């Protein structure tokens, strides 16, 4: 059975200001591997882009780290990805491209794309290129450095909205959709 946390029992992450610098930043010129087998340079993406960043998706037969559900904002990656899957068609009607991003390798992400039937690509930042360039907030668990959950909306390569902290993760896609509808010119 797939691990799905009880979101009502998770600790709520607090805004530590770690994303205050991102609004108005340009997406950097660097290449990330996608689950579609592509090398994607975020700086070349035109139009509106939603980039939701998450710590990691649970892999079948791989235990979650000890204390995972006690780390504010850690648990809920599957819920968040499924919510973006469920809103994907509506986001496309607004001309929005959606990508998920974690520091997991592409093969781990590919498993999640297939298992969760995600209609968009996940991007691997296993080398922390984007994380370092944008100074994205991270945390460590069991010797692994992971991205804290956040969502960026970029328009023409510039970050125009930052959702951080993201909680509950299953409501993030709806919040993004509502913001985009209210802020579409």
How many strands, which pairing sense, and closed or not: the largest β-sheet?
A: 7 strands, mixed
The SSE order reads: EEEHEHEHEEEEH
Which regions are unreliable across 5 or more consecutive residues at pLDDT < 50?
A: none
Oligomeric state of the chains?
A: single chain
Brief overview, please?
Helix content is 24%, strand content 23%.
Structure, described:
With 185 residues, the protein is an alpha+beta fold. The chain contains four helices and nine strands, in the order βββαβαβαββββα. Helix 1 (77-93) runs parallel beside helix 4 (172-182). It is globular. The chain starts with 30 loop residues before the first strand and ends with a helix. The relative contact order is 0.26.
Topology diagram in text:
Layout: E1 31-34, E2 39-41, E3 48-53, H1 77-93, E4 96-102, H2 106-116, E5 122-124, H3 129-134, E6 138-141, E7 144-147, E8 150-155, E9 158-163, H4 172-182
Parallel strand pairs: 3-4, 4-5
Antiparallel strand pairs: 1-2, 1-5, 3-8, 6-7, 8-9
Helix pairs in contact: 1-4
Short key terms for the protein model shown above:
single chain, 185 residues, alpha+beta, seven-stranded mixed sheet, two-stranded antiparallel ribbon, 4 helices, globular
